[in-house]
Design brief:
The protein is α+β, with helices and mostly antiparallel strands and 321 residues long. Helices cover 21% and strands 12% of the residues. The chain contains 8 helices and 8 strands. The strands form 4 sheets. Strands 1-2 form a two-stranded antiparallel sheet. It has a two-stranded antiparallel sheet with strand order 3-5.
Length: 321
Amino acid sequence: RDLVRSRGLGDVYKRQTQYADESHPEGTVVALDKVPSRTGFSFTGWFEDEELTSAVESVTMDDHKTVHAGWEEVYVPPYVPPVTPSEPAEPELTPNWLNTEDHFGYIIGYEDGTIKPDASITRAEVATIFFRLLTDEARESHWTETNSYSDVAETAWYNNAVSTLSRMGILGGYEDGSFRPNASITRAEFAKIAVSFFEYEDISAENIFTDVAAGSWYENFVAVAAKLGLIEGYAGNVYRPNESITRAEACTIINRTLGRAPDAEHLLPESQMNTWPDNRPGVWYYAQLQEATNSHEYKWSGDIEHWTAKLPERDWDALQR
């Protein structure tokens, strides 16, 4: 007789079906090797008693024998449909003139194969990066090779970038008429450039940093950059506005300005990416610098990018000609 025990519920009850009686000569040892099946349960063995306390693997035919099947309910987790990658919610403010759709790499490494994440970055280099990141339409409509700076020659490799972005109002020079292209850019200057791509005049922001002086030329730029989530300070609510920004910090702010959201766990295998000996997994800026140096296709997984393919790098030098 085939009895069912649902141990999860503690019930014992008879099934409506059972195996047909079998006849065996007296003294025969019958192996209990049949394995019945039942949807939603797993077979736990044959038992001598209805309470399913005495397991048995064979019986000796010295009388009529009845054995009972033991069952244990199988837990089947509820079906959870797979998560379909979705784009993040549209930000309240988006930058003007910048290509936020195509994820092109916008910086390259040095001849020695490094990327130098902790090195400073010059004003000319920053101008060139943002010049590359303009939409083709914005670059063409604002293009110029002339400027009023005393130290930006028409033949300089960065002239087109500095001239065009200055015409757009993104860049500015100093009171003495210079641009100082080879000077390291400060954290305050970089914040100003980043927020200049937004309608920052309409954004009300409170200064949260203790070392950003009230009334300073950069106070509102830094406050707006913080409100937009483009920048962060250091411990103690300091921003260090007059310190040179590092290449890793600059790329992080650029990625945020563009709305990019790289994640170290969702990049491509290193064998498929441009990699750098001084940018290894585990450092805080790893994904940010990979984003800056690898052109790639992507899809959104919530609020982070999931890279799907490597793309060829663009010929940025062609833009400078």
